[in-house]
Amino acid sequence: LALAPYLGSLCAASGDAFLYHDYCIIGAGPSGLQAAYFLQRAGRDYVVFERSHAPGSFFALYPRHRKLISINKCYTGKSNSEFNLRHDWNSLLSHDRRLLFRRYSRDFFPNADTMVRYLEDFASLLKLRVQYNTAIVHVTLERDRQAWNGHYFLLTDQDRQNYKCSSLLVATGTWVPNVVNFPGSEYVEGYETVSINPEDFAGQTVLILGRGNSAFETAENILGVTNFIHMVSRSRVRLSWATHYVGDLRAINNGLLDTYQLKSLDGLLEGDLEDLAIVKDKKGKLHITLRFYLENRNTSAGIDSITLPQDELDNFATRAPYDRVIRCLGWKFDFSIYNRSLRLMTGKGNKKKYPQIKPSYESKGTRGLFVIGTASHSVDFRKSAGGFIHGFRYTTRAVHRLLENRHHGVPWPSTVYPITQLTNSIIKRVNEASGLYQMFSVLADIILLRENATAFEYLEEYPVGVLAELEVQTGRKAPNGLFVVIMEYGRNFSGADKDVFYYNRAVGEAQHAWQSNFLHPVIYYYNRLPTEHEMRLRPPDWPLPRPDAIHHIVEDFLTDWTAPNAHILPLRRFLENCLSTDLRNFFAESCFLFAFTRQKLPPFCQQGYVRMQGLVGSERLRRHAVEAGLLEDYTITDFLGNRPSDSHEGSQDHLLRDHAIPVHPLQHLVTAKDE
């Protein structure tokens, strides 16, 4: 009854009672601020709602032991800012050079307090429109045919203030602790509240429930003061260097693996937590048993009347009692504030902690509701970096570009180049692009071919999961075929059970590039845009359907794909085979010869030589070409005709002084060497 007046006020609220914005963002964490930045730069009407008094409230508490596991590599040996973002996992994208994380910390694994300060500066320096101390407690829909998506989103905060928006971006992350209920679970301490003072655990025996980074982080903190630590989880330990997934166990936290394998009392066990039970004895010790031992028994009668596993199996692994049991099972998305009308559903299987969304990051149940940031990780869970700052800063930008096209008619940014620049464009991107590198197998560069393959249009970092919808989502047309440039690991190289340090684990020769294991560029070629049906039927673990042609650029130890023979030449020949054209660069002399000996000039000659474009030749450039075997070594008399022989030396000196070769005027247009 007490709720009736409140619910009635919601139902009776008139349109004038709502504060309207085109875009509403819930949450001022990293993804919420990143989305706000792009909307502000585009001049859109938006607001960010943050329940706390400052942005990044999650990082004010977590990780509990304050050390982030996102790397902050300040030195790479390069000054290219885009390349350096490949190894900066904390910075958000912006035009302001002051907002690079390395200006806030030099630590390779920074302190979480630094992240809080960074996010505060990001919001204040960029003057983002964040409304603090505003907790959204209810979200529902209002049908309206005039709205962008056929409905408005109605939001209500803790003070019963109502808001209306046309598009909703959910950036709340996953912050509700995962809890497993079993008999005796009331004796379990949560990661979110357990003491972080190691002295509180001195001389104690501890059981940790969980097997992720929070569990190992907790163990690492008390490893040196406890009697021993046991860790129980339903799955085996997954090492990030084996799975190539940054959310799995990182080396910075895996000290317990040493003490376990070197038999220093600590240990790891596998088991379903829902099958466990905890019984507390009179001394306050916690005994681990199995749920079925407690069925139809009165647990209040005392531990002496309860059968424990060691009563039947005297070497039961967890027969020793524990002083403390700590739950470190991660977090899940908060569905509680969303009305059923939004049809925001939980994921399936191991993705049930996330909401169900499309590869475009839009809710499967409600048009116009986008999930960004950590909560959007269902798109690439255990595959790429979409659940972390260095991944979702790019997927958030992709969502913004999709919205710009849908609601404001602004097509996906692109650049048009002549076809002669195709090889160079790809090589530049695979060596510099941070979005492709971090969001491997998820974001890709799309190259749309123009008619007769005379030019191409380059789109950067498009979500490959919606490739079939490219024309609708981007406002760009793809009638003449396309290339897709993506980064991938080897098909069978990643997994918890994989030995990633075996001999001959890397490939070095271009002819074996398809067997590359480490992250490397892959180029897919399609004669036409794949259909949604083809996307659904793509092979398992393939990011894309089977192409008409595919090319792997061989993996490189330095991740530097600029070797002329190993990287560039095979790529160029692949592109030539797909396009049935010659993509080489030629000297003007060669173009001059082709004009008399071929029916069709190569594109480089058509777009350069014939249009009087190129570099004026010099004797030094010509001599370099001759020594490299790229031009024939014509004698100077070939150009001087019937002049007397005694004038040869003086004429040659004159030519060298003039730095020009006296040939046909068109042949002054000398360009880069033939490849």
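(ticket continues) Second input and output from the same batch:
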Amino acid sequence: SAAMRLAALLAALRPVLPLVLGLSLGCSLSLLRASWSQSGGEDQCLGAAGRPGPLAGRARPEAADGRPGRGHEDFRPRIVPYYRDPNKPYKKVLRTRYIQTELGFHERLFVAVLTSKATLNTLAVAVNKTVAHHFPRLLYFTGLRSAKVPHGMMLVAHGDERPIWLMYETVHYIHQHFGSDYDWFYIMQDDTYAQAEQVKSLVMHLSINQDVYLGRAEEFIGGDEQARYCHGGFGYLISRSLLLKLHPHLDSCRNEILSVRPDEWLGRCIIDFLGITCVSQLQGQHYHTYELAKNTEPEKEEEEEFQAALAVHPVSDMTLMYRLHKRFSRIQLDRAYQEIQDLQMQIRNLTSLTPAGEAGLTWPVGINAPFLPKSRFEVISWDYFTEQHLFSCPDGSPKCELSGASKADVSEIIDSALEQLNNRYQPLLRFSKRQLLNGYRRFDPTRGMEYTLDLLLEAVTQKGHARVLAKRVSLVRPLSKVEIIPMPYVTEATRVQLVLPLTVQDVDFVANFLDMFAMNTLDTHDNALLTLLFIYHPYDAQRVSQVDVFAGVKAMVGELEKRYAEVKIPWISVKTEVPSQVKLMDIVSKKHPVDTLFFLASVWTEINMEFLNRCRMNTISNWQVFFPVHFQEFNPALVYRGEQTASSSTDFLRDGHFDRYSFAEACFYNSDYMTARTKLAADILDRDEVLESMEVFDVFLHYSGLHLFRAVEPGLVQKYALRSCNPRLSEELYHRCVLSNLEGLASRSHLAMALFEQEQANST
């Protein structure tokens, strides 16, 4: 019947009924929204006089008067479509070095300290030693400078000690040199102690989309108006937008406003021309200050107002500045410890709710769990030590004297263990150290340095009873906050001067080196030059007119110069029995300018643009030298044993190792080498035989204050070759060369397989 057919139809449509209803509802809402958009946009197509309205999708919404909408200037993105003119040749786009430069980001905080000739060597020095290293950028401004400027202080002298003139010139200088680089500008006096971390935290919580004049608000002298100025003694904060608006009016303020106090003059200028008054509270953030009374004892100040202060004034002398810094540092440290305890308590409470339960709680609470090795090769070994000796020495010897940083580390960790024990058991027990029985330590990259100490202690009760007992304690020195070390700016456009020393044994490998040099530098027009250093044995040097052992190499160089007309490859001939790396560099150094960037290469080095750029970036004049650790491929006869060599990209850096015994490659500036070499010459006097036991690495390590950057370099891959080790060199250099050859044969598994196959062959 009809009813049955209808029921069957509804049963068939029931699974798709929600989909149909959803589509219908969605289409209806879309049509309704489109009609609203069209009706609302008709008025925007034409302006009041029939002019075309703003384009759709404009980044900055405009108000009815055509000016940008308030509060939206910097937060709406504008998409610029890429267009390339087909009639113009393609030109590579030059990108900025850092993404924050390209995106127009600014640094957060700039600090200006107003000082004077009388206090430059006293209070200004105290400011520099206490808080300057906490601020990202800090400059000192004075009218007249003293004869000697304290070390490590960046000083700007305006040539006039008048307070108003000093303030005018300071604000003008800040706008001219830093106005486009920073979001916030903090101005303080040298008799002000400011909590640097608190000031940085304050600016992190303030919005930059507002004109800010923040400090300790004070009434104008003799004025009854509501406007306020920021007291200069307690420092004040100015936003970038306010500074940009204030700068055009500075000359008018200097000519029209009369005032004795520079901070009052600046406040009057901001109020009269911008209509902005000083505030002590903004966006929920308070600028707390504290005024010091005479003969104040910072160690005894317990007021909440003092502990919450961002700035303290007046500071009468250097000693008081240091005492304030010590007191506030202790306050910050206590707060940090209390916060750690609160976080640990929260972690303990939440751990019981996790799937692992309390068993998943690691020690110490809040620190990463220890590294869990997946195989025996990943096990981190422990280093054994006592109070006098270390049994895992850097030079590989089984036992050495505990000294330097290691001795200080052990002493500090023992003292910390005793302090923790006494804090836990006092007043019931008081511990004192008798002896360190055993000490173990290891570095866990996931959490930090771990220690296990077996201590022989003397425990004394409250009644005076003493007893000697042994106790094992475990301690962890966790990895702290990662800090980015500021480095000088370098570019990738620096010319690299390659230096290739060659002996008779290296002649067979020169062809491959020159081919790679031509393909990766000459063909790509990289800014790199090559100098060859022919090292003749005295016997070969006598026969050079009849038989030149480097004749083939010179012929190959001639072919390269014919192929590349603009390229010249000079060579230098040296006669010696002992090819000392330092003596060879002495010869090359004298023939090049002091600003030359050297890359000391070996004949097995395969030059490529990737590494040359890293050589440029990792080598900084008067700052850092670079000693890359190349990747050495294993002997294919042992690794593949007759099978086809793996050549796919997935096998890159697989069948080989990074040769940590080789120091043949190095990147450094000639000026840095000459400076270190001069110190070496003054140390060894005329004992040139000492140079035979040294490499360039040793010269920089012992006779320069530069950073020695030694890191694995995947861009330097060398084919396997058995190096010839010169027995005339020092014992250490010869031993290092032999070890490099031995470890470069194959991995342990490959050597074991080769021995196994050899034993099978011998048994049959």
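Agent notes: The longest strand covers residues 429-444. Residues 318-351 form the longest helix (34 residues). Closing as not reproducible unless the customer responds.
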